[in-house]
Amino acid sequence: xxxxxxxxxxxxxxxxxxxxxxxxxxxxxxxxxxxxxxxxxxxxxxxxxxxxxxxxxxxxxxxxxxxxxxxxxxxxx
Length: 77
Ligand code: SF4
Ligand code: SF4
Description:
single chain, two-stranded antiparallel ribbon, binds iron/sulfur cluster
């Protein structure tokens, strides 16, 4: 699957200010069935590594701090 070029162009965006991955949270990475989310070594926050998404939503729903936003394409709504 294609590597995500920039975090702002992928469908799943993580608010670094809210993400507590640096405190040990890996919930979104763990629940994603496509395994496209990762914790960044640079920022210690979660991000979308691969630009691939089923829009199944558990990453957004299960994030304990509401840091994840899944932007569902208009055609899929
Ligand atoms: S579930 Fe939320 S707080 Fe936890 S790593 Fe993912 S984005 Fe960060
Ligand atoms: S919506 Fe589903 S496939 Fe997309 S990143 Fe979240 S858990 Fe993974």
